[in-house]
Structure formats: C-alpha cells, structure tokens
C-alpha cells in the first residue's frame, strides 16, 4: 500500500518543499530589511497630524500625494538632484576611465615595478578617508578649487584601489594566449585594451559603475567638506540642511528621502544581471 509520501504527487510536493524551504529564512530577512523603507514610503504619504498620531499605523488613512510636490517648494531639491546627478555621473566616468587602465597595466603588461605597485595600491585601502581628508583639503585649497565639484571629481580620475583590484581580478581570468595572438598580429597594447579587454569585461565595468555611483550618490562627508555654496549642495547635504533650518517636517523629509532612494533601487535592478556576474567572476585567480 502506498503511503502519501510514496505517491507521485507526494514526492513532487516533498521535492518542491525541499527546494523552497531554504528560501523562507531569506524571505523573512528580506522583509525585515524592507520594513524601514516601507515605513518611509508610508510616512511620506501621511499628513503631519497623522505622522504623530497614536497608535501608529502603516497604511495612511488618507493618502496625501501632494507631499511630494510641496516638498520641492520648501527647498530647492530639484537643484540638489541635478547637482547629485552631475557629481555621480562624473565620478562614474572617472573611475571607469582610470581603474581599468591601471588594472590592465598591472595584470597584463610586464614592466619593472608592476608587481610592487599593485600591493602599494591595495595598501591605500587601509587608510580611512578622514586620515587623508585634511591633506587633500589643503592641496585643493592651495589650488583654489574648494567650493566647487572639482575636489570631489578629480580623485576619481586617478583610480580607486578597490575598483583597480576588482578589474585586475577580472583581467586575470582572460587567457594570456588571446593577447599574445593579438600582439603577433601587430596590435598595440592600447588597441588590445580597447578592442579586446574592455568588451570582455562588461560585467566588471558594470560592477565598478554601480559601486561608484552608489558611493557618490549617497556621499555626505565629501560634499560637506568641499561645497560651500547652497546652490552646489547635493541631495544628502540638502536633506541635512533642510532638517537643520526648519522644524522637522517628517512627511516632506520622507518624501524627498523616497525620491533619494528610488534611483539607487532602479539602477540595481536594471543592471542586476551584470552586477552579480561581475562579482561572481572576479577573484577566480590570484
């Protein structure tokens, strides 16, 4: 006599349960981290009296959609958004230009000092930003660049240790015979880099672009140090100034915070496949 577990339907059910059961803790953990964002969206759609009403409830009794429009009338957040977008895009361009070049030189070109330079580059990751903040500020002050975006953008065009490491690990997965064949055909190193290496490392470049965009979009300390004019403020700095110069209007603050977060979420989901592939395929060689 067949037991329920030995029946074909029962075996399929147990197999499906075995496959999906490990996802339950991940789902619960994801909901736990999603709850603050959900509460932020809920607060952005409430009136100021409902924000402080007790008992608190997640779903607004009345959806106040004009909070988003009124928030932009309270402060020049459109200008802050434009500044943040400009700063983030320029930083991404800088890192995508400089980091692959350095990574290619220390991974695929034999030159004296290349093996010594890469550990020195990695050692700079041990230095926290506050350690180098004052010397860098003095340098840019001597160059009369403090007050604009130049001190925030120029360092990106000199490369980043983490992004160089990420690109180097990806370049090491490319067979050296492919590059040797191109050299035999008469290709220069720059042509090999531009026509062969860069098209192959799209996932790694996407990872570098996402990481650098997220870092620049949410950067607060850098703009706080170098930006002196309010019209140059980024969103993170503008939100802080909005809290400091007004009675905290939480419904407006949460509305801008939602708009501050949404681009990051959209960019991640659009480029998720390349991002995961770039992370998964780096670090396979040392």
Plain-language structure description:
This protein has 286 residues and is mostly helical. It folds into 2 domains: 8-68, no CATH class; 69-280, MetI-like fold, CATH 1.10.3720. Helix content is 71%, strand content 0%. It has 16 helices and no strands. It has helices spanning 8-20, 23-44, 48-51, 66-74, 77-107, 114-123, 129-142, 150-153, 161-171, 176-184, 189-200, 202-217, 221-226, 235-245, 250-270, 272-280. Helix 4 crosses helix 15 (250-270), helix 5 crosses helix 9 and helix 5 (77-107) runs antiparallel to helix 12. The chain is flat. The model has no long low-confidence stretch (mean pLDDT 83).
Work out the radius of gyration: 25 Å
Number of contiguous helices: 16
pLDDT below 50 for ≥5 consecutive residues: which ranges? Answer: none
Largest sheet: none
Number of domains: 2
Enter the CATH topology name of the largest domain. Answer: MetI-like fold
Structural class: mainly alpha
pLDDT averaged residue by residue: 83
Q: Provide the β-strand percentage band.
A: under 5%
Q: Helical proportion?
A: over 70%
CATH architecture of the largest domain: Orthogonal Bundle
Q: What is the terminal separation in angstroms?
A: 58 Å
Q: Secondary-structure element order, as H and E?
A: HHHHHHHHHHHHHHHH
Number of strands: 0
